Predict the 3D structure of the following.
Amino acid sequence: MDQSINKTSRPPYGIIAVLMIGAFIAFLNNTLLNIALPSIMKDLEVDTATVQWLTTGFMLVNGIMIPTTAFLIQKYSVRNLFLTAMGLFAAGTILAGFAHAFPLLLTGRMVQAGGSAILMPLLMNVMLTSFPIEKRGAAMGIFGLVLMGAPAIGPTLSGWVIEHYDWRMLFHIVTPIAIVVVLIGFFMLKDKKAKVSIKLDFFSVLLSSVGFGGLLYGFSSAGSKGWDSPYVYSTITIGAIALAWFIFRQLRQEQPMLNFRIFKYPMYALSSVISMVLTMAMFSGMLLLPIYVQTIRGISPLDAGLMLLPGAILMAVMSPVTGKLFDKYGGRMLAVIGLIITTVTSYMFSKLTLETTYTHLIILYSLRMFGMSMVMMPVSTNGLNQLPPRYYPHGTAMNNTLQQVSGAIGTALLVTIMSNRAESHAKELAAEAMKQAAGKPTPEALAIMKQQITMKAMLEGINFAFFVSVFIAGLALVLAFFIKRAKQAEDTIGGNTSGRNPAKEEGN
């Protein structure tokens, strides 16, 4: 975007407000659909592996589109990008809302993804260029409020809609809001972009698409297909080769599509690693807890959504608070305290039983979200603060891409750990039960025994996966001790003539 935006006397609050409304709608839509998947399976007569493409396909499009956003932000104005992104999102929402066949619904979701992939990097870039470093934490905290507010109400709203209406109502609710946001953006956004002499390298786009897309698809499929599936290891291998080629090509170009040189700035590199590790740990709660409460405990979708609501609201409310604390104290203290809370609560989640109370789950999940709220935005902002302004589009695009990839890896890893542990424990329980059974058990007794073994084995698998997430969060905690308050590096374009280290930062 036009760097002149931060030369104005005050930040462009009108532009930021419009962008935040659009981003909120996109984030809300993502969380609405998860609870609706069983209803979609039944209505459109598709199996679990097929319906999962509504999530996997969305991630793939994000993985393909997000790396190109650095180029798009530099090339086009905020107005043009926002209207294009929201237009795509609105079109996809309308198509999905009227879909009576799964291919149409999937197409609508992927069109939505094309729009939403642009929104978050665009909004983050506007925030970075609109506020000075000393006020950026509070500004990014407000952004975090929007980012976390949508997941706070999404599951509960979705559960209520599914219990009272057809799943298509989830899209019909969002459609008029998306259209209004497009109209507001059309009339309010007036920024102009000076002509930029930058061209898109289409071979880089191809390599990026195959690289990130292959990794995302491979890791996303590993949980259901297994690591020994040719689809899994072949796509991961192809993706890794294409990604390595893509990185090598970007490092040789003067105007790369996605600039990997930003990793020479130590605080940005450290923040990226911590964010990736924490995203993997975060997926343990997002993935394993719903399985536990709905499959093992038989809690309804609405009650499951309500259980997650206090934690999500707490995380959203804390975001502006942690933003102000970040401006005052820096990122290290917040990250260390937050990761200690996350690690301890992850360990407590590894001790779930068949009798764990609903209240206990709410409190524990809320505490875990409280801990994570102190880490994600401060760590990310601290890393971005060290980059020269011309690298902001690349930094925000890289952050979002790495979160997509780490989310897919975390999901695949934890599902595999859970499944393998549950399977081995089920065999142990079955062998023990047959030894204790006096004589040949009746079919009724055998059915009850099988059900009990399945439930206990799945609980053991979930607990073990949470236990592994303790070590993942612990790794992020160790790395957090190396965080220093980032100082914006000098822009070394045309050579660093000052003799200063471009990656220099001051201690916290």
User: Anything to note?
Assistant: The CA atoms of residues 152 and 309 lie 5 Å apart. The two ends are 31 Å apart (CA to CA). The chain is about 75% helix and 0% strand. The first helix runs from residue 13 to 34.
